[in-house]
């Protein structure tokens, strides 16, 4: 594999980044809905991923290219990601391993995603989030075991947002279970989001948040011989597509407060992956800002709906 | 080779707590019961175990593990803070049986996905059950979250091999992670 650029929190590069951003404010400067289908990483053929592709899903990947340009302009100290495939049955876990590295062979898509990861965690912020979450009454754990494989939803969103991996990271788990899965826990994500915001404020970080969620989530139960065969890529059905468009219309019109009602409605209509709570966590951390979201791209991946969206108060 | 049929079936838990060095009384009892299942299988001359673990959940088709030898340490993303969150495993897979199972899943009109990748993360349910049952060659299929019960029944039936590849076979399902 190619070498991955590696910056530890507080390294000269991140210090320079903070210095260059010192004219800006600390706090949460932007949030992105950043879906993680491994197909998008596979299609890009980065050196960290073993499988090779002939491309595919270009419109979504163009959206991520725009996200990367905007992210560079925001010059954050840290990327904080909440992802639905680090599934923790008891409480909310935060990755506090200083330098997670290894290979993540994805058990569902091992033919598409065998990714060599090596990145820096902002441990101070990670620990602050654990503390704030616990103080807010949540069950929260600091995960310090380097043997825990980093999941593809965490890696996917982070790679697609910042393939250079030159910004430290904080990674949060999703407290749910594939066999007991509803939107009942969204209230708790409000609490976790608020705790995240307090931790960012307390540590003085300039942060960008990533919600690693797809939208509508019904999908094919079998794959074409060529995974990137765009001739068969389309929405699962019109109902799923229309549900996504209804949600995205609210996103585009703003303000985000309207999404408090729109997200659960969308989940009920489309089995949306936002039921894992990442998007609610993001918007709650941002204080449900009175702005519209900017939809950078929409497309389907094995029929699931995916949108790349920016909220920049 | 023994008679060509399914020798037994069992539902056993896949929670790693059963392997704790200092288990709670209920965990100890469940572990002992699962070991008893393994003893009974050996008494019946079982030659291979067909296994579906609900903790190897997938969404596309039905993945069949085709790597003949799986070894390593499973660090569980939930239970890493405890001794039972770190599980050594060294599993033999009956690759011929696995490929035959995959072929029969395809023949039944479903999509089998043959899985053989270095570093593949074997799930906690599989490791736990295999440790308690004892060393049987395994054939493993994933649990498609979206498959209806009748589809999984078809997958199970496809694992009952024809006479050409047969032997004693036993099918079991590891328990749901919620217990």
Task: Tell me about this structure.
The complex is a heterodimer of chains A (313) and B (179). Chain A contains 9 helices and 10 strands. Chain A has 313 residues and is of the alpha/beta class. In chain A, strands 7-2-8-1-10-9 form a 6-stranded mixed sheet, sandwiched between helices. A two-stranded parallel ribbon of chain A has the order 3-6. In chain A, a hairpin with an 8-residue loop joins strand 4 (101-105) and strand 5. In chain A, helix 4 (123-135) crosses helix 6 (186-203), helix 6 (186-203) crosses helix 9 and helix 7 (238-253) runs antiparallel to helix 8 (259-270). Chain A is globular. Residues 1-23 of chain A have low confidence and may be disordered. With 179 residues, chain B is of the alpha/beta class. Chain B is 29% helix and 29% strand. The N and C termini of chain B lie far apart (36 Å). Chains A and B meet through loops of A and strand 2 of B.
Briefly summarize what is shown:
The complex is a heterodimer of chains A (313) and B (179). Chain A has helices at residues 12-20, 38-44, 58-74, 123-135, 152-161, 186-203, 238-253, 259-270, 278-285, and strands spanning 27-33, 78-87, 92-95, 101-105, 114-118, 140-143, 169-174, 206-211, 294-301, 304-311. Chain A is of the alpha/beta class.
